UniProtKB/TrEMBL annotation, chain A:
Top-level taxonomy: Bacteria, Pseudomonadati, Pseudomonadota, Alphaproteobacteria, Rhodobacterales
Annotated ranges, domain Histidine kinase: 357-557
InterPro entries, per the entry: Bact_Chemotaxis_CheA, CheA-like_dim, CheA-like_homodim_sf, CheW-like_dom_sf, CheW-lke_dom, HATPase_C_sf, HATPase_dom, His_kinase_dom
GO terms of molecular function: ATP binding; phosphorelay sensor kinase activity
SUPFAM superfamilies given in the database record: ATPase domain of HSP90 chaperone/DNA topoisomerase II/histidine kinase (SSF55874), CheW-like (SSF50341), Histidine-containing phosphotransfer domain, HPT domain (SSF47226), Homodimeric domain of signal transducing histidine kinase (SSF47384)
Compositionally biased intervals (Low complexity): 275-304
PANTHER family for this protein: CHEMOTAXIS PROTEIN CHEA, SENSOR HISTIDINE KINASE CHEA
Keywords for this protein: ATP-binding, Chemotaxis, Kinase, Nucleotide-binding, Phosphoprotein, Transferase, Two-component regulatory system
GO biological process: chemotaxis
Record-listed Phosphohistidine modification sites: 47
E.C. number(s) listed in UniProt: 2.7.13.3
Domain of life of the organism encoding this protein: Bacteria
Catalysis: reaction(s): ATP + protein L-histidine = ADP + protein N-phospho-L-histidine
The protein's name in its UniProt record: Chemotaxis protein CheA
TrEMBL record, chain B:
SMART domains: CheW (SM00260)
Matches recorded under Gene3D superfamilies: CheA-289, Domain 4, SH3 Domains
A single cellular component GO annotation: cytosol
Domain CheW-like: 12-153
A GO biological process held by the record: chemotaxis
Pfam families: CheW
Listed SUPFAM superfamilies: CheW-like (SSF50341)
Domain of life: Bacteria
Protein name according to UniProt: Chemotaxis protein CheW
């Protein structure tokens, strides 16, 4: 059973790739400048999903993919015009197919309303063009299969037949079937008796004979199939059409005995995969063979071959490698220190060798990061669907343009980007773009455009979501924020500050009126998720021209740029992203408030001073701020604080290590890292320190009490 | 009751014996991954008093528990002669700070006696059994499960 699960998992992984191919292909078709090959690619992908699904008995998926495929096939044979309506149905079908795959993955067998609806729409598309199939009912599918795209004369078929016990039991005889084929044309029969066991093991219940029949005939495929009409569920049968002109030299593929129509079969331009064996297909009619492949360009194979060879590697292995390289980097730093203390650091040979080692370690680290990196394409791909759905829900016409989808980021980041981006895209469609009336009035095209772009910028990844809508209505944002008590009425705010109000928790400019709002998620959640990834979100908006959200992310979650600080005898790391400035305080800027409270006057603003030594329980009372260094940090909701530390050592990249794995969460600490001397340093979570220190004044003393 | 035990014979198993002050303790050898010399730890804020801090074990962050403090003997003053016993406990790795490791001893299950009822001592709850030897030596068997409460409890 676990074997089966493994195959099923492989199938789903493959499905993800195929679904992506379907979506990509459909979008190319959208743009109008597509080639027939694109349609073939989409068709093949859908067909592969169907084939795999049939092998695992995923009935819902099979029947839907089949209908989808049928419609696509009509398109291939130019029996169907690619109208915008048809395109819309295809897009939605592609979405639905993804849903069904996802449902199958979690074994969700609930009825999918969209599926039923689309089946009817696809049926309508097929029905429109195909007079022989007037029946809108879904069941008698086999009818529409043989009849259209009829084969030209002089075909060769390769039929592989392996009778099952049932075939004999029901009184059928393979010989009679072969004779019936003889009536259609010239037949060459080869008997494969290789599987026949020795007599002592032979059993009448497990027939082992297999026939390979080459048929040259003028008959249509449907006629050939008709011969097997009564036995197709009692034997393993495959019928492959061989195109005379582009016959494939590989005999293995002609012998399409493989019970699961796989990718490789589909990629073959000249050969058409026949029926998957009836016993694996719960809906034989749905999986019936179909005439196809004739229009398929020989270039199909070549086009697929251009995709670079890839292997699938378990992420754990990459992580392990990453871990070891982290160790290597640390060891290298330790070696440097040892050499320094030994007084050898001036020796040119030592310096040269050490430099070489450092460079190599850096290169290896970079290469492994590159293994973990994946193009943002997967995420961007999904956004097309989000835009479509959001556009449907709001009744707006929206076009999504993606730029730089090959930009690569860390694999874990990709997964965690989906939610925030989805939300931002919905937000752009719902709030960013104006309705068509207002667009018309301001002389913009009916169709709103949302641009999703990604690029590498100074060691970070920058993702932008921009719309060509009306921009942020700052007066309204302000009045809402004032109503909700988020800002003091009459406070002087710069346009940028007003824009940032959108990120405040509790701010929602539309009061759950549209279908998209009312999900209970605001942009504050987006901001929190992006921050959790070590990123930042900013807004830029021009009245009447549109709004741009910019996400800036680190390249990886495994490494962090940090400032090394000293507290007593401990070294800690403060993420550089939070740091605004560092300074040595003087009497003019330092102010006492009450008995223990202290604040720093910085650019006209009073910032509370937090002694990190107290926060972490390293000393009982706050030290003299004059002896230390103050680091001004800012949280995402614009709360600022000055951290008092003893000294700042360095700024460097550190490898993030989990503290929770072997210990547990420590408040004020996000993770740990290993320094050059092999010691562990804790990475400070400034967000948590600021939030907890301002809400809980007794905390410092409590921490010390707990520490004894 | 006993956790992972490496049986080398029926009813017998190996333990690692170590010293804390002047008393002998032991834990199952199956739980022990390695024994290291003491190296300075990085202090964890808000940690219980017996958590010495964390050390770097080939790239993993490992907590070090001061057994002496945990068993109520008072915090130890670690020198380079002290050892850290790296043990695996429910998928997590933990270091146990002890004075020195003395021996690997094969004990038979029937030589384990129940702990005499001396309820007031904090060590009582961490010791699951006593092993007596003919020469009058006594080994106190430590229960890791009791020693290290669950993560949420000893994290804060």
């Amino acid at each position: 059973m676990s074997d089966m699960d493994e195959y099923l998992e492989m199938f789903f992984v493959e499905c993800d790739e195929l679904l992506e191919a379907v979506a990509t292909g459909l979008r190319q078709m959208d743009e109008g400048t597509y080639e027939m090959e694109t349609v073939h690619a989409v068709f093949r992908a859908v067909h592969s999903i169907k084939g795999g699904a049939a092998a695992f008995g995923l009935t819902d998926l099979v029947s839907f993919a089949h209908k989808f495929e049928t419609a696509l096939d009509l398109l291939r044979s130019s029996a169907l015009d690619l109208s915008p309506q048809a395109m819309a149905v295809f897009h939605r079908s592609s979405d639905c197919l993804a849903d069904l795959v996802a449902a199958a993955r979690i074994s969700d067998t609930r009825e999918n309303a969209l599926r039923e609806e689309l089946l009817i729409e696809l049926e309508a598309l097929i029905g429109e063009e195909d007079e022989t199939e007037a029946d809108v009912d879904f069941v008698p599918l086999s009818l529409d299969l043989g009849d259209f795209g009829g084969s030209p004369v002089g075909d060769r078929y390769v039929i592989s037949l392996m009778a099952e016990a049932d075939l004999y039991r029901s009184g059928n005889d393979p010989a009679a079937l072969i004779r019936a084929l003889e009536k259609l044309g010239e037949v060459r029969v080869t008997l494969d008796a290789g599987n026949v066991p020795v007599l002592s093991e032979w059993s009448a219940d497990t027939p082992t004979l297999r026939w390979q029949i080459e048929l040259e005939t003028e008959a249509l495929l449907s006629e050939v199939e008709a011969v097997f009409e009564f036995v197709e569920d009692r034997c393993r049968l495959s019928i492959a059409t061989i195109d005379q002109t582009t016959e494939d030299p590989d005999p293995d593929l002609r012998d399409s005995q493989d019970p699961e129509p796989q990718d490789s079969d589909m990629a073959e331009p000249a050969i058409t995969e026949g029926t998957p064996p009836a016993q694996t297909s719960p809906a034989p009619s749905a999986a019936a063979p179909r005439p196809e492949g004739r229009a398929e360009a020989p270039g199909a194979k070549a086009a697929e071959a251009t995709t670079t060879a890839t292997i699938r590697v378990n992420l754990d292995r990459v992580d392990k490698l990453m871990n070891m390289i982290g160790e290597l980097v640390i060891k290298e730093a330790m070696l440097t220190q040892v050499i320094q203390t030994a007084g050898l650091s001036e020796e040119p040979e030592v310096v040269g060798a050490l430099e070489g080692l450092r460079q190599l370690a850096g290169d290896i680290q970079e290469s492994v990061m590159a293994i973990r990196a994946q193009p943002l394409k997967q995420v961007f791909q999904r956004m097309h669907r989000i835009v479509r759905e959001a556009a449907d829900a709001t009744g707006k016409q929206v076009r999504l343009v993606t730029v730089g989808e090959q930009t690569e980021v860390d694999k874990t980041m990709i997964e965690r980007l989906i939610d925030p981006l989805t939300h931002m895209i919905r937000n752009s469609v719902d709030h960013g773009l104006e309705d068509s009336v207002r667009r018309h009035r301001s002389g913009k095209p009916q169709e709103g455009a949302i641009t999703l772009s990604a690029a590498h910028k100074s060691g970070r990844v920058q993702i932008e979501v921009s719309d060509d809508g009306g921009g942020i209505d700052r007066a309204r944002v302000r009045s809402i924020a004032e109503d909700k008590g988020l800002v003091v009425p009459g406070a002087s705010l710069t346009p940028g500050e007003i824009d940032s109000l959108l990120f405040l928790p509790g701010f929602s400019s539309k009061d759950e009126v549209s279908a998209l709002s009312g999900r209970g998620v605001g942009l504050d959640v987006v901001r929190r998720e992006i921050t959790a990834l070590g990123g930042r979100v900013t807004i830029a908006s021009t009245e009447g021209k549109g709004t741009t959200f910019t996400i800036s992310l680190p390249l990886t979650l495994a490494v962090l740029e940090g400032m090394l600080i000293q507290l007593d005898d401990q070294t800690l790391v403060l993420p550089i992203t939070a740091v605004q400035e560092t300074l040595r305080p003087d009497h003019a800027t330092l102010h006492h408030i009450g008995a223990t409270g202290r604040a720093l006057l910085n650019r006209g603003e009073l910032i509370p001073i937090i002694d990190l030594g107290c926060t972490f329980g390293l000393r009982p009372a706050p030290g003299d701020a004059h002896n230390g260094v103050l680091i001004v940090v800012e949280t995402d909701n614009h709360k600022r604080a000055a951290f008092q530390v003893d000294a700042i050592h360095d700024q460097r990249q550190v490898v993030i290590k989990s503290l929770e794995e072997n210990y547990g969460r420590v408040s004020g600490v996000s993770a740990a890292t290993i320094l050059g001397d092999g010691k562990i340093a804790l990475i400070i979570d400034p967000e948590e320190i600021i939030t907890s220190s301002t809400s809980d004044h007794g905390r410092d003393r409590m921490a010390i009490a707990a520490n004894g | 009751m006993l956790q992972t035990i490496s049986h080398n014979a029926q009813g017998k198993h190996d333990v690692i014996a170590f010293k804390l002050t002047d008393q002998d303790f032991c834990i199952d050898i199956g739980l022990v991954r390695e024994i290291r010399g003491w190296s300075p730890t990085t202090v964890l804020p808000h940690a219980p008093h017996y958590v010495r801090g964390v050390i770097n074990l080939r790239g993993s962050v490992v907590t070090v528990v001061d057994l002496s403090a945990r068993l109520g003997f008072g915090a130890s003053e670690p020198t380079h002669r002290h050892v850290v016993i790296i043990a695996m406990h429910e998928g997590r790795i933990v270091g146990l700070l002890a004075d020195l490791v003395s021996d690997i001893v094969t004990i038979s299950d029937d030589s384990i006696q129940a702990v005499p009822d001396i309820a007031s001592d904090p060590a009582h709850e961490f010791i699951t059994g006593m092993i007596t030897f003919d020469d009058g030596r006594i080994l106190r068997k430590i229960d890791l499960m009791q020693l290290l409460p669950d993560a949420p409890q000893y994290g804060g």
